[in-house]
Design a protein that fits this description.
This protein is α/β, with parallel strands linked by helices. It has a single domain (27-199), classed as 3-Layer(aba) Sandwich (Aminopeptidase), CATH 3.40.630. The chain is 45% helix and 21% strand. The chain contains seven helices and eight strands, in the order H-E-E-E-H-E-H-E-E-H-E-H-E-H-H. The protein has helices at 2-21, 51-65, 85-95, 124-141, 157-161, 177-184, 186-199, and strands at residues 29-35, 45-46, 49-50, 71-75, 99-106, 116-120, 148-153, 166-173. A six-stranded mixed beta sheet has the order 4-1-5-8-6-7, with helices on both faces. Helix 2 (51-65) packs across helix 7 and helix 4 (124-141) crosses helix 7. The chain starts with a helix and ends with a helix.
């Protein structure tokens, strides 16, 4: 009897170990971050600051801050070079990510215009996920330093043609003094990057 109980105990342990051993590993969440513009395409330029540089710097900070082994951050542009929109979309669709965030900086003739806003595609397949993620990110980065603006639908090329939930994130206005100081400061860029990362976990 004791032998039978012992054997059953060993079999139970083996079975449990087997279940854990063959349990599928949690799949990584893949987030593609597109630093807008690049190369000869400066984007918004004002007071010696360029959109392409700000977007690239913040994209790199998001990746550097990520310590979560279940999240993989892929940067589309890691240097100051021009990429066609079609080239970006081709890479995105080959990667099949869980989310695309295209980073940009706004500008306006009205220097009072300020705040962070996001754009998503009206594509039904990814609409809800795109909107949900866009709202999380906008809520995350806005606050004392950045006014919270809205999430709006837009027919942008990358949003329409990327086969995944996709967001164009305008991180503030280079034309607005308060936004510009925040966007171009080391502390501001670190905060924005940290809030973006926290919002996609």
């Amino acid at each position: 009897m004791k032998t039978n109980i012992k054997v059953l105990g060993i079999l139970s342990t083996v079975l449990l170990l087997g279940l854990f051993a063959f349990r599928p590993l949690e799949e990584k969440k893949v987030i593609v971050i597109d630093a807008g513009h690049g190369g000869h395409d400066f984007g918004a330029t004002m007071y010696g600051f360029q959109e392409k540089t700000i977007s690239e710097t913040i994209a790199k900070k998001v990746k550097a801050l990520n310590k979560d082994s279940n999240i993989e951050i892929v940067l589309l542009r890691e240097g100051d070079h021009f990429m066609e929109l079609s080239e970006r979309v081709s890479i995105i669709n080959n990667l099949k990510p869980d989310l695309l965030i295209s980073l940009h900086v706004n500008s306006s003739k009205n220097e009072e215009s300020n705040g962070a806003e996001a754009y998503i595609s009206s594509k039904k397949e990814f609409y809800e996920k795109s909107k949900e993620n866009a709202e999380k990110i906008i809520n995350g980065i806005s606050g004392e330093n950045l006014l919270k603006l809205k999430v709006t639908e837009a027919p942008f090329y990358m949003l329409k043609n990327s086969n995944c939930p996709a967001i164009t994130l305008e991180m503030g206005f280079l034309s607005n003094n308060k936004d510009r100081v925040y966007l171009t400061s080391e502390s501001g860029q670190n905060e924005i990057a940290a809030h973006i990362l926290e919002s996609i976990k």
